[in-house]
């Protein structure tokens, strides 16, 4: 009777939680009887296979009911024939200008629950340009502190340089509690709502970007492997600035031991040009070089 009860419990847990190896080890350690190992393995495999035919496991169903975007290990087969642009949908992208009014920020944060927003700037020709990504939590910190409010609707640094941030690093750290800050907890006066914020010092200037015609399966793998939460989809660029290989990412020691440089093409070209200049100077001064060699 004990064996049947043990196998029944193993099949129940294996079919509901879809655990095989770990559950098998736990059952064997409880009984301390290796003779039951083949039967436990068989029961777990059968219960998991039957459960996968009908529905997902208990943990996956709980994540789905709570609205947690849990990604599977592999993308769906139909994603191979879809592009990143198709996954974006037809909804309008909610973006923020570089210098935004406080009242507009409050209105956007109250109207949606997005975690990040693209920041848009305009060139001299009037073309829109994505300059980075700003997080919702960072916007809440800026609104709560009020130290970065300004009266002018112009950028604080028109050249786009780095401005000193009057905040501590722990203010932008992720809160311990899952709730965190809320826009409803921030109280702003009517004068505060009429002021402006320059978002340039607080944005991420290099977010992950993919072209609009990239396969959705590749986009899925990026989210899965890199743990991304946001990804920008942009039109395919028409100009190539360079090419990076594995060798370009290797770090080598330079003449100064305390200095490390990336072994990029530009670094190799700089060393090559230096050798050429040294060789040319040796050709131009043969007598001086001979005297130096003779003196040594």
Automatic annotation (TrEMBL):
PROSITE patterns on file: CBS (PS51371)
Keywords per UniProt: CBS domain, Chloride, Ion transport, Membrane, Repeat, Transmembrane, Transmembrane helix, Transport
Location in the cell: Membrane
Membrane-protein topology: Multi-pass membrane protein
Region named Disordered: 152-178
Biased composition regions of type Basic and acidic residues, renumbered to the chain: 159-173
InterPro entries documented for this protein: CBS_dom, CBS_dom_sf, Cl-channel/antiporter, Cl-channel_core, ClC
CBS domain ranges (all copies): 82-149, 203-260
Pfam family, one: CBS
Protein name: Chloride channel protein
Protein species of origin: Stylosanthes scabra
């Amino acid at each position: 009777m004990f064996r049947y009860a043990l196998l029944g419990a193993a099949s129940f847990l294996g079919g509901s939680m879809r655990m095989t190896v770990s559950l098998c080890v736990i059952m064997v350690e409880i009984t301390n009887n290796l003779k039951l190992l083949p039967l436990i393995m068989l029961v777990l495999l059968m219960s998991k296979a039957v459960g996968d035919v009908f529905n997902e496991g208990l943990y996956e169903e709980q994540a789905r009911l709570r609205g947690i975007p849990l990604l599977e290990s592999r993308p769906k087969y139909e994603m191979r024939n879809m592009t990143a642009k198709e996954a974006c949908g037809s909804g309008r992208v909610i973006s923020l200008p570089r210098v935004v009014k406080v009242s507009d920020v409050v209105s956007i944060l109250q109207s949606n629950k997005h975690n990040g927003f693209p920041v848009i700037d305009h060139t001299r020709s009037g073309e829109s340009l994505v300059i980075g990504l700003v997080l919702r939590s960072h916007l809440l910190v800026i609104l709560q502190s009020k130290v970065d409010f300004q009266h002018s609707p112009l950028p604080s640094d028109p050249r786009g340089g780095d401005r000193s941030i009057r905040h501590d690093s722990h203010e932008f750290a992720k809160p311990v509690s899952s709730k965190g800050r809320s826009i409803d907890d921030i109280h702003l006066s009517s004068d505060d709502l009429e002021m402006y914020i320059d978002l340039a010092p607080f944005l991420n200037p290099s977010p992950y970007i993919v072209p609009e015609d990239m396969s959705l399966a590749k986009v899925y793998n990026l989210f899965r492997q890199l743990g991304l939460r946001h990804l920008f989809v942009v039109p395919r660029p028409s100009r190539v600035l360079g090419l990076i290989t594995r060798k370009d990412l290797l770090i080598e020691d330079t003449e100064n031991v305390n200095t490390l440089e990336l072994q990029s093409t530009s670094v190799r070209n700089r060393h090559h040009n230096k050798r050429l200049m040294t060789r040319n100077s040796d050709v131009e001064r043969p007598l001086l070089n001979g005297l130096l060699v003779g003196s040594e």
